[in-house]
Design a protein that fits this description.
single chain; 246 residues; alpha/beta; TIM Barrel; 8-stranded parallel β-barrel; 39% helix; globular; binds 2-phosphoglycolic acid
């Protein structure tokens, strides 16, 4: 039986009071869910408050990004140790918005993955093609390059891979179950080449306009082991329904 991982990515949303309000409503709704991992990723400023509110709940805490150096003169950056210190067990690395708006390439993503893992964080490593790349028939090439370079010299431990087609993020245009399954199966194959048997237990989660309506079908795909949820994770009732998929 696979253990699903359902992660919320709040992006640049929610203040500290809003984070507390969300968790006050959300935690009672998911208190009996023990057979899947539930992760929330508030902005850096709300991590500590979220960590306090999550104590004893079993829900895990993730940052949305991390810098690769341990400390020093890097104005505005946050180290892996600082994220751990704020109460996180997870961190998202390589999200397409980081790649797109902050020019993070595969080499930068790889540095971040390595630094986060070295510090003991579990990494949610994101890959995904743009619409242009998909239409040009380059989806598999792009994904292969992102996986091979992003995970260079990185073992399979404490790793979750998130497939997030860029054209499906925040657009309301979800990948069909066939499209998701096809790319997940491909990622599984690439991971198998990198890690051999050890790749079998790796989870590949889907992200991109996951909603209360489509989650059940997406989670039923053979190689989909969870979801990374943006917009639909901002409301407690909606994210609780997604976490409770059938
Ligand atoms: P979305 O975002 O669910 O709003 O499409 C997903 C993500 O970017 O992780």
């Amino acid at each position: 039986m696979k253990r699903y991982c359902i992660a919320a990515n709040w992006k640049m949303n929610k203040t500290i009071p809003e984070t507390r309000d969300f968790l006050r409503a959300f935690l009672p709704l998911v208190k009996d869910i023990k057979d899947r991992d539930v992760v929330i990723s508030p902005p850096f400023t709300a991590l500590s408050a979220a960590a306090d509110a999550l104590k004893g709940s079993g829900v895990k805490l993730s940052a949305q990004d991390v810098f690769w150096e341990e400390k020093g003169a890097y104005t505005g950056e946050v180290s892996p140790a600082m994220i751990l210190d704020a109460g996180c067990s997870h961190v998202i690395v390589g999200h397409s918005e980081r790649r797109q708006y902050f020019s993070e390439d595969d080499v930068i993503v790889n540095r971040k993955v390595k630094a986060a893992r070295k510090a003991g964080l579990e990494v949610i490593f994101c890959v995904g093609e743009s619409l242009e790349e998909r239409e040009a028939g380059r989806t598999f090439d792009i994904i292969k390059r992102q996986v091979e370079t992003g995970l260079a010299e990185v073992g399979p431990e404490n790793l979750v891979v998130a497939y997030e087609p860029i054209w499906a993020i925040g657009t309301g245009r979800t990948a069909t179950v066939e499209q998701a399954q096809e790319v997940h199966a491909f990622i599984k194959k690439v991971l198998g080449i990198l890690y051999g048997n050890k790749a079998e237990s790796l989870r590949i989660i889907y992200g991109g306009s996951v909603t209360t309506e489509n989650v059940d079908n997406l989670m039923a795909c053979e190689d989909v082991s969870g979801a990374l949820v943006g917009g639909a994770s901002l409301k407690a009732e909606s994210f609780a329904r997604i976490v409770s998929f059938k």
